[in-house]
Amino acid sequence: MLPKGLWKATEDSETREVEAVEPEEGQNLVANTSQMKEPAMWVHGKKSILNNCKTIHVQPTAPEGFEGEWDDETEMKKVTSADAYEPLLKPITDDNRIHITKTMSQSAWSVRLMGDQSEYQNVNPAKPQVSNGVVVVRSL
After folding, report:
1. How far apart are CA 27 and CA 18, in angstroms?
2. Phi, psi torsion values for 92, nearest 5 degrees
3. DSSP letter at 44?
4. What residues contact residue 19 under an 8 Å CB cut-off, 6+ apart?
5. Is 34 helix (H, G, I), strand (E, B) or coil?
6. How many CB atoms lie within 10 A of CB 139?
7. How far is CA 91 from CA 5, 17, 74, 95, 107, in A?
8. End-to-end CA distance of the chain
């Protein structure tokens, strides 16, 4: 899991990677622990597993003995449309809920703030507040 807003998907859609966001001068990207304890502040950072049990699509090749027109791009579009990629940096709140009984369900993630939940003013007022708490994100 990655904190929301600190990562972005790379421009190259084939590698499907994420990279850190570079803050502009004077901009602070750090969120405090009281904000990070909300499930909406967390996103998936890894590639999802496709139906072919891999994280990328394999380039299809013409079957042995095939005679006729074979277009690699058209065949690759067929493969990707049949098994689409999950978006990178998808919020964990969009995940399917866990069904406990027919009528009860719960979120697939547990997000808790552990330890000292107090936020202390920093000695330097230009710097953000300090907290000794830890946010724990756990998959259920």
Report:
1. 21
2. -70, -20
3. -
4. 7, 8, 9, 10
5. helix
6. 9
7. 11, 16, 31, 8, 12
8. 13
In the chain, the amino acid numbered 57 is H
- 50 with 85: CB under 8 angstroms? yes
Task: Phi first, then psi: give them for residue 86, nearest 5 degrees.
Answer: -75, 145
d(C-alpha 7, C-alpha 13), whole Å: 15
Query: In 32-138, which residue ranges form alpha helices assigned H by DSSP?
Result: 33-36, 72-82
Note the pLDDT tens digit of each residue in 22-75.
Answer: 877 766 666 788 888 999 999 988 888 888 888 888 888 888 877 888 888 888
What token pair was written down for 53? 């049990």
Which bin fits 15, alpha (ψ -120 to 50), beta or left (φ > 0)? alpha
Of 43, 39, 37, the residue nearest 135 (C-alpha): 37
pLDDT digits (tens, 9 = 90+) for 82-112: 888 888 888 999 999 999 999 999 999 999 9
pTM to 2 decimal places: 0.72
Give the number of other CB atoms < 10 A from CB of residue 135: 21
Report the pLDDT value the prediction gives residue 80, as an integer from 0 to 100. Answer: 86
